[in-house]
Specification:
The protein has 334 residues and is α/β, with parallel strands linked by helices. The chain is built from 11 helices and 12 strands. The structure holds 1,4-dihydronicotinamide adenine dinucleotide (NAI). The site of 1,4-dihydronicotinamide adenine dinucleotide has 20 residues, from loops.
Length: 334
């Protein structure tokens, strides 16, 4: 029997444990050759141990170099720093890749959407450098560096060339934020001579939002800053069926953490209502990345077959199956 590869699994909180369980069941049934090293992070961990991101989680990712992560809750306007932001900054996972591709049979406004968002993952306003001037005034600092802009720009261009894509579009607001967004834009435009087979162009992010809704096929690969990338990813998910199906991965030079676009969905947590597709697709990308293309395809084919039939969909896609029953239907299709 071939050896299994050890991968860190962080189920997270909210719907995280339910959808992580689905991935574990599917991988087991598909004989994906993965052994999970399961570690806990998130709100329940904080409540029981006083730590959100315990040292054993960091050590496990450092050792295994690849992780699959479920969502984790971050309170708004108060409380702790986001675990995601910490992981992305601490492991310098500088590129967050989010494919926006129509799923066969899932009826949306368009059925031919196919672009990839590459989001800078470590700086911008998401550095979280904020301070209060007085009780009625708060400041936040936006950090953009040439190095991080070039790193994410090169990542997007290399990926575009590898996948046979033709165009990389930089989204920004350099008309208003002339120094920060201006630097991001200038740095990535300067890469054009390194990538003669690509067109590198740019668009204002607000205009791009309108185009994404009216004319999404004009996009091929998008590269953008951290905050804009976060927002347009959710917009993009709306073009392909919603947050329940939008997958992603965070990449650095030596490590990768795969996770869905969506959050911990507290409104449906613990109710067997979550759609595990987004985390499953993230896990399929992980298998591809690990060179396990055959089993990745087997799982994706079974997943798409399950989604194609309205009877075997979860509630967010108009079906009636719970997370567990959907997982069972997928396994039957393997
Ligand atoms: P959310 O993405 O958790 O939920 C938004 C809406 O989409 C909700 O109605 C939810 O029920 C639905 N939804 C999300 N995922 C779904 C799935 N797999 N199946 C079916 N329906 C799904 O966004 P929200 O409510 O703004 O954030 C909740 C928490 O998640 C916050 O604390 C936020 O900070 C955190 N968050 C964590 C992320 C991560 O860990 N990667 C990413 C985004 C948010």
């Amino acid at each position: 029997m071939s050896e299994k590869t050890l991968v860190t699994l962080i189920p997270g909180d909210g719907i995280g444990p339910e959808i992580a369980e689905s991935v574990k069941r599917v991988f087991e049934a598909a004989k994906a050759g993965i052994e999970w090293e399961e570690v806990q992070a998130g709100l329940p961990t904080f409540e029981s141990t006083g730590e959100l991101l315990p040292a054993n989680v960091m050590a496990s990712i450092k050792k295994n170099k690849i992780a699959l992560k479920g969502p984790t809750t971050t309170p708004s306007g108060k409380g702790h720093r986001s675990i995601n932001v910490s992981l992305r900054q601490d492991f310098h996972l500088y590129a967050n890749v989010r494919p926006i591709k129509s799923i066969p049979g899932i009826k949306c406004v368009y059925d031919n959407v196919d672009f990839i968002i590459v989001r800078e993952n470590t700086e911008d306003l998401y550095r979280g450098i904020e301070y209060k001037i007085d009780k009625d005034t708060a400041h936040g600092i936006k950090i953009i560096t040439r190095q991080c802009s070039l790193d994410v720009g090169r990542f997007a261009c290399d990926m575009a060339v590898k996948l046979g894509r033709k165009k990389v579009t930089i989204l920004h607001k350099a008309n208003i934020m002339k120094l920060t967004d201006g630097l991001f834009l200038e740095a990535i435009l300067s890469l054009q001579s390194e990538y003669p087979s690509l067109v590198i162009n740019d668009m204002l992010v607000d205009a791009a939002c309108m185009q994404m809704v009216k004319n999404p096929t004009i996009f091929d690969v998008i590269v953008t800053e951290n905050l804009y990338g976060d927002i347009i990813s959710d917009l993009g998910s709306g073009l392909i069926g919603g947050l329940g199906v939008a997958s992603g991965g965070n990449f650095g030079s030596y490590k990768a953490i795969f996770e869905a676009v969506h959050g911990s969905a507290p409104d449906i947590a613990g109710k067997n209502l979550a759609n595990p597709t987004a985390l499953l697709l993230s896990a399929v990308t992980m298998l591809d990345f690990m060179g396990k293309g055959d089993v990745a395809k087997k799982i994706q084919d079974a997943l798409f077959k399950t989604l194609r039939s309205p009877e075997t969909r979860t509630r967010d896609l108009g079906g009636s199956l719970g997370t567990k029953e959907f997982t069972g239907a997928l396994i039957a299709n393997l």
